[in-house]
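tool=predict chain=A
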Amino acid sequence: MSPLELLFLCTAAFCTSALTAVVGAGGGTALIAIMLQIMSPAAAIPVHGAVQLASNTTRVWLFRKHMAWPIIIRFAALMPFGVALGLLLFQGLPTEVIQGLIGCFVLITLATRQLKSLEGKDLPLWAFIPVGFVTGVLNMIVGVIAPILGVLVIRKDLKKEQVVGTLGFFGFIGNLLKIAGFTLVGFSFREHGLTIACMVPAAIIGTRVGRAVLSNLDERYFMVGFRIMLLALGLKLIVFDAILGL
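tool=predict ok
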């Protein structure tokens, strides 16, 4: 990877983390879509998982007293089996198909953020068991599904801090299992050590800057630009990388 490409990825990690600090979610989705402009899915997804693990670990520590454990325990129960299945599927899929799936997921994420029909409806606790399994599968293929999980976790019996902390733990366990899975099949994180070592602090600094500076600006303008960027990246992955690439 050239120094210019590394600088581009670090800038992306910084900016997406800063935007997440303002709008609450979506930065991880944007980051994986951006990384795919430089890296193959086989490298981008595990490296993205390592970068996001650092961010999620920080959030888990900060919100360790605000965890919804009944949800977390059910969510984590079958996730390892989902990771194993997702890893098998991932290894058998062509690069173009994975890019297309990620592009579709980016567009689904945009649609999910507009859903109003789920407001006021709590997902039954037992449902987080299959949700954890499906999350494990998708985490290995599309890289991140936090925006959709965010919609499912919001409940009348949870405070905002519990929602943030629980989602952070979801990301923590998901990315930890993702890293373990890719390590078991021979992916070398050491070969991408410099990229990870540069992107992690960029993401952490971006979060701090976002909270300190961008939070004083009008969130609506950021959301418009953010959604336009996600839409463009999603369509590029589907049309140019997947369909035209096959």
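The first helix runs from residue 3 to 23. The chain has a mean pLDDT of 81.
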